[in-house]
ABC transporter ATP-binding protein
Amino acid sequence: MSAVLEVTNIKKNFGGISAVADVSFDVREGEILGLIGPNGCGKSTLFNCILGQLTPSGGEVKLDGKVVTGLRPSELNKLGVSRTFQLLQVFPKLSVRENLILAGQEHQGNMASRLVGRSDAGLTEAANQMIGFFKLDHLAAEPAGGLSYGQQKLLDAAMAFMGGPRLVLLDEPAGGVNPSMLADLKDRLVAINRQKNATFVVIEHNMEFVMSLCSRVMVMAEGKVLAMGRPDEVRKNPAVIEAYLGH
Ligand SMILES: Nc1ncnc2c1ncn2[C@@H]1O[C@H](COP(=O)(O)OP(=O)(O)OP(=O)(O)O)[C@@H](O)[C@H]1O
């Protein structure tokens, strides 16, 4: 399997703090890679360096073999990279369908089409398909702000897929979601991974969720990679247990 994402010796310092210290890993085509580690170990900073939100202090990021280090988020978006954030990014007053259409427009990044094209930018059909896929049909016309938190997280994840991305980085998709919605969320992420051959990297604190969703898990501690392997290997790694118990 070829690597979709190759991260080599990425570093990020904030003044005297080394938030990410020389991290290297790759993500294979069609894989769901989990990224875990205690609070403050550098997971979000690493995501932000990969996604162009932060400029790394050193190192290189390659997408499909091409160097993309330092590209802006909008440029990465055009290359098929999408993300979700820890905090919800939905617009509460807009309906579920309108949120999805807006997300599709963001991925297209085409202001001209918004000004002179159809008001839905031709995205209603794609939004309806995504609504069906994420089983949000009964909520399509509802304002997103009226949905439960778990339903809004599902919508937030669906929005990341509107551009038909090749690589999606999900930042705590299960955070705050109740157990019954978690099963739906996992089921939909697995389905979209298989059907659309999208590759994921998932930051998550919910161990059950991440261990059952991911094919490999990378563990960070104090800005470094502590372990990388199959969920069952990582679970019993003494250094990983120590890193968690130590905190
Ligand atoms: N903009 C910033 N300026 C200064 N220090 C920062 C900044 N962003 C993060 N840090 C520091 O970098 C380190 C890594 O933080 P980061 O948010 O990447 O960790 P994390 O693993 O994502 O944590 P969490 O699981 O709590 O979200 C922490 O010590 C944090 O305080």
Observations:
- The chain has two domains: 1-80+165-247, 91-164.
